[in-house]
Amino acid sequence: MTFNPNADIRGGKASKRGRNTAIAAGGVGIGAVAIFLISQFLGVDLSGILGGGQPQEESGVALECATGQDANERVECRMQGASASLEAFWQAEAPSIGVQYSPPADFVLFDQQTNTGCGAATSATGPFYCPPDQTIYVDVTFFDELEQRFGAHGGPLAEMYVVAHEWGHHIQNLAGVLERTQDGQTGPTSNAVRVELQADCFAGAWVADAANTTDPKGNTFLLPPTREQINEALDAAGAVGDDRIQQTMQGQVNPHTFTHGTSAQRQNWFATGYQGGAGACDTFSISGSQL
Fold first, then answer.
1. Structure pTM?
2. DSSP structure string for 213-277
3. Three-state SS for 177?
4. Which end of the chain is more exposed for a tag (fewer CB within 10 A), N or C?
């Protein structure tokens, strides 16, 4: 999806952290690949997984991004532009699904490793939302991983889909929905899967309306998505389905361990949000066969 070059994205909530967190040797004991598979897009408290690093003082640095043209040219500015659009979208949309909206505390782009309210995180963790500090964390090198390891085609909208998914977890946190994932259950109809599919649906709802969100001067943030760009987002959703990841990494699929949904489910729920808006995203009130 392409930004309106004249859009003012300075209001986007995004900051960057450098590499100044030391992870204790052996602190992430189950290994980078395992962490990635477990926590990718997880959106729940990762303190029991990320382990205890040895934190050093960190501070966020504001991005030097001002316009939609900057967002079209630089991935970090694209993240800031996406956050500005998502903020405008959810301020208007959240009340329609009974959520009293407040923005995430921060949207942090980090380099290799950082401290979070959920523990120490590394690039291997993948993008995630941390409920205790209400912050979204993304190492933008993940987008290369999405293409190289998991075969996604990439593209700007695929990148912004990731941000919109994590923003969806923030909406769920405000609504008290994320608490439902903490029952320890996995499998095709588990609450863990339902919460992830709902976040995909929320992402689709934002994409459908993104060309209508405007900056303070009334300029639209984004131009209407093309069919090709929608396919990029659907491709990214499919690339991180439980079945596809398990087949790629393990050579077999174990449905009883699903935590995020299959590739087809993730694509279908993104499409549901795109076609029906956030109000169509109730993944908790339907039977397992309808997921």
1. 0.86
2. -B-TTS-BSBPPPPHHHHHHHHHHHHHT-HHHHHHHHHSS--GGG-SS--HHHHHHHHHHHHHH-
3. coil
4. C
